[in-house]
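Lecture notes, structural biology module. Today: joint structure prediction for complexes of two components.
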Amino acid sequence: MKLLRTFQFFVVVLMAVCFAGAIYTSTLIGQRQKLIQKSARYNIAWLAGQASVEVSRLTQAVAGFGVPGSDISRDDVQLKLDIVDNRLRLMNSGDFDAFVKADPERQVIVNDLGNVLSQVQGLLERSTDPKLPLHLMSMLEPLDKRLSRLASAANVYGGERVDADQHMLLELHWAFSTMIAGLVIGCIALMAIMLWNFRVLKRTNGELQVIAGSLEQTKIDLETANQGIQTANAELNLHNQILKMRDNEMRTQNVRFDAALNNMSHGLCMAGADSRLIVCNNQFRQLFNIDQETARPGTAIAALMVRMGVALKLGESGTMGLMREHDAIVSARTPAAFTRDCPDGRSIAVHHQPMVDGGWVATYEDITERRKAEEQISHMAHHDALTGLPNRAYFLKHLEEALAKMRRGESNCAVLCLDLDRFKAVNDTLGHPVGDLLLKQVSQRLQAAVQKEDVVARFGGDEFAILKNCAVEHDALAQLGQLLVKSISTPFMLDGHEVSVGTSVGIAIGFQDGTSSEQLLKNADLALYHSKSEGRGNYHFFEARMDAKMQARRLVEMDLRRALPGNELELHYQPQVNLASNRITGFESLIRWRHAEKGMISPVEFVPIAEEVGLIIPIGEWVLREACTAALNWPADVRVAVNLSPVQFRDRNLVNVVRNVLAKTGLQARRLELEITETALVQDMDVTVGILHQFRDLGVRISLDDFGTGYSSLSYLRSFPFDKIKIDKSFVRDSSTRPDCLAIVKSVASLGQSLGMTTTAEGVETEEQLNLIRQMGCTDVQGYYYSRPLPRPEAEALLGRFNGHPAAPAIVAA
Amino acid sequence: MRTLDRRKFSLGMMGLGTVGLAAPARAACLPTVGEKPVLTIDGKIDCVGPDGLAKFSLPMLEKIGMTSFATNTPWYSGPMTFEGIPMTALMALVGAKGAKLTAVALNDYTTEIPISDFAQYKPILALKRNGVYMPVKDKGPLFIVYPYDSDSELKSQKYYSRSAWQVARLTVS
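The predicted structure, tokenised, for the full assembly:
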């Protein structure tokens, strides 16, 4: 490196020297050039020569001037003198002067010339001497020679100068050449240095290449290494991430575990093989009232047991017992689960699970509430919610037990089934809350009627059942039945309302009326049904035939369902005759059932069944339509009367049905008469009366049927402005024999008269009765006397005949 | 300013020349009576007198139009102001038709000058040096002076030789 520096320095120096040399040479040349010019410019020899010549010419002029007869004037001479003067001036300046001064001899010559000239001048100007020219010539003559000498000297001088110049030029030439040479050498040196440099560079380059190569290699190695590191790094990162994730997971899990542990509903306690606590949760601590300090991990289990004992109020012996038990469980190394009812009132369920490492984990649950809940559920499962009485399922269970006892011969039992009469009415009129109250009070009364050993159950709705485990004899049961009927029929005070219901009871005695619970119950039920059909508010024992009866009834029901679509039903018409005009004023339509096999079945048989099963509604509608259609054929003054069942009044659609039938058939409303019994009014009087008013608004007539048979017939008359009263046939039948009946008939007739109602006496069979009725003042009669109910064709025929012959009433049909 | 004057003068002179051609031209070339001629021009010229020569006196020359410049010379130290007539003007006045001008001095010094020099270098025929008429003693009366300072080429023997002093005669050929 240093070498390079020195070389560089040398190169620079060399170049500077060359440059300087070049400049110097240039200046030298310039100088020389100037000098040459200067010297070339003035030829001293020529000047000297010319001086000599001009002086000669002057001399000639002077000579000529002196010669008489020449044409050279003074002026000419003056001219020539002037010319020489000029020449002299030139000789006194510039290089010539230098030349002259170089040699004193020359100076003398020049000076002399000057003197002479001035003398001549003076003389020429002033003198008029005729010998002047000669004088002048003598002055001028010596000059000639001397001037020649000067000229020669000048020539030599000139030559010397040229030599000197040539020499200088040669020197310059050499100097210049040297410079050039030096420059060339310098260039060569430079080139050499550069070549050397180049070599050095090449070598260096070579080395660099090698280094570069090795660097390249190193770079590759480094890259590989780097990649390796990166991969390793990436792996590490990955590991790190995984670890972090695991850590997080662990953390999360811990948190979750903690959360799970402490949000369990059960208390948890885990111990190691050394009988020291590993972990327990909040619930455990709370359950046994152990503080965090005592329940630190590492505490001996025994210490915890002591605290548990205190919390559960076990006492010292109890605690000892607990610890012994616990040790037994732990050493047994098997899972255990048990419930402990503690003196403090709580029930704790314990699950003990041994762990593989010798420790164990146990969960504790306070199941006190659950127990209570279970009991409650159990209770609810077995008892009716409203009354608290056992329900059907529970009752059956008791029944089974009782029957088992019966089979073992230990004791007998009896089943009573009862339901409330008119319960639905109460519910509908006073609402369900009152209905519920009623049921509660009924259940109380029932319970009061029986012994402790007996079971009173509610089967649902208004159905109850009693299982008698004692006093199962017939008479005792009869007495009980009586008592029940009486008790329930006593009015109840419900929320300020006085409510009267009744009960029907069915009794079945074990063994004789059934050996299985199903059988016994069924028979008790049949007995109940019988009671109901026997008018309600009574009790009946099961009789074998009830069963049969039940079956028969079922059959009827089934047939009846087919009757209407099967066209087995027909209407018969019984005429109603007006006494005054002795004309048939109307027909009462009565339903008849012509059974395909059994023949005619009386309405008494099937109407109650129809009412009970709800068939009465469609049948009733059919009856209305039939009746109205038939009446269309009859003269305008003949009405048709249709009986309405109380059950039909419960149908909310009843008025619409009547309206539709009238509209469809086109029958005038006033030709339709609807007959209702007092029974219909008894049940839901307000609703019924409302319906009646709606009928009235339609224009339909309303008759009060079977008058006198109900409770408060007169008050019914008050309830609604009926169009007709139909006196029950019982009164008519007994009118001939019993004067009180007659009196009643009379008063009713007059009542009807006063109220503007038609009175029809039903069931007139004899002429005597007829006359009596007529006497009493009834307006119309109906009965076998005139005709029994006839099928439509016969009825219409009768109508034709009867009304055609007003004067001759005759019994036509038998 | 000087150049402008010179140009004007040249133009004027040319105009005069043409007028001179139309009118009798000889009048301008003849010396006025009583004035001593200092310069004689002969050769291929238009303007000649009765003896076939053009003669000029100093005032005549001065009338042509003076110009001046200052320059260094080898004969004097320091710059000198020479005043005279431009050679081009003189040539134009006489209607010189040649390419060469031969100048002969009072001392019979002879030199040849190409006429192209006049336009190129603008030498003058000087009458005055530093405002004073030059006597014969001092290179007078007429001195052909080049403006040596204006061109380095002029500073050579060639042009110094052409700078004839004590000019008496010009011959155009």
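Point to remember: Residues 806-810 of chain A have pLDDT under 50 and may be disordered.
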